[in-house]
Amino acid sequence: MGSSSRVGRPGFSYMGAALAVLFLIPLLWGGWSSLKGQPGSSQESGFGFGNYVAMAKYGEGVGTYLTNSLMVAVMTVIGTLVVATLAGYGFARFRFPFKNLLFVVTLAILMVPYATILIPLYVVLGHLGLQDSLVGLSLVLIMFQLPFAVFMMRNAFEALPRELEESALVDGCTTFSALRRVLLHGVRPALITVGLFAFLASWNDFFAPLILLSDGAKFTLPVAVVSMQERTFGAIDYGALEAGVMVMAVPCVALFLALQRNYVQGFTTGALRG
């Protein structure tokens, strides 16, 4: 039994390495294409940063689009973490009427096609005075993140021993202070997982900003990159497009590499309890 497991380990290692290379090929190809000159692009020949310069000068400037994307991502992450933490804690620790039904209804949002409710949400944002605003866009993205986030946080809180909370209450903590001072430390991997998912979803989302935003100065980076059609007859500047794709990808890759250990731990905890 031990010899077979030792024989199997190199096979899994080679398979993992092959899959890693397979997933890295598109990223490496995009980086190479963004630096390589292409006929009809901003950088006609050679290698350099001409495509990045053209991308940076497009429309309102890449700084504006990056700022918009960052603002939306930060608001989405903070809103998702706050609501999902309180909701997950409530579902895990308290009893109230229709608790299970409400939880199922929350998860049922995952079964609603994403694109079908954007137009109704656009109308609702109009009544709230939040049409064509980054705050309104963030609220919509938070709503779409909540089912998964609440599920993760409920499972994470259920995995914690109730004795931790009871000890804090005996020591004089209120329910909220016990949550803030004791329980949040125990669900840190789940918080990081939920935050990372919310960031990646909001940073890379294209369809919701396309529908909900009309002012070019408020566009997020994905919408700006896709709209890079500067050439004759609407031809796309593929060099600048690849440069924009790399600018979008770098923060996601960096965050995932920095938080991957907590991400795997938090996701495993949420997956093992359900």
Topology:
Blueprint: H1 2-35, H2 50-57, H3 62-93, H4 99-108, H5 118-128, H6 134-159, H7 162-170, H8 175-186, H9 188-204, H10 207-212, H11 221-226, H12 238-272
Helix pairs in contact: 1-12, 2-12, 3-6, 3-9, 4-6, 6-9, 6-12, 7-8, 9-12
Give Rg in angstroms.
Answer: 23 Å
Strand element count? 0
Largest sheet: none
The pLDDT mean sits at: 83
Task: Give the CATH level 1 class.
Answer: Mainly Alpha
Share of helix, binned: over 70%
Q: What is the H/E order? A: HHHHHHHHHHHH
Name given to the CATH architecture: Orthogonal Bundle
Structural class: mainly alpha
Model regions low in confidence, pLDDT < 50 over at least 5 residues: 270-274
Which fold does the CATH topology refer to?
MetI-like fold
The number of helical segments is 12
Q: Terminal Cα separation, in Å?
A: 32 Å
Q: How many domains, in number, for the residues?
A: 1
Q: What is the CATH superfamily?
A: MetI-like
Beta fraction: under 5%
Shape: globular
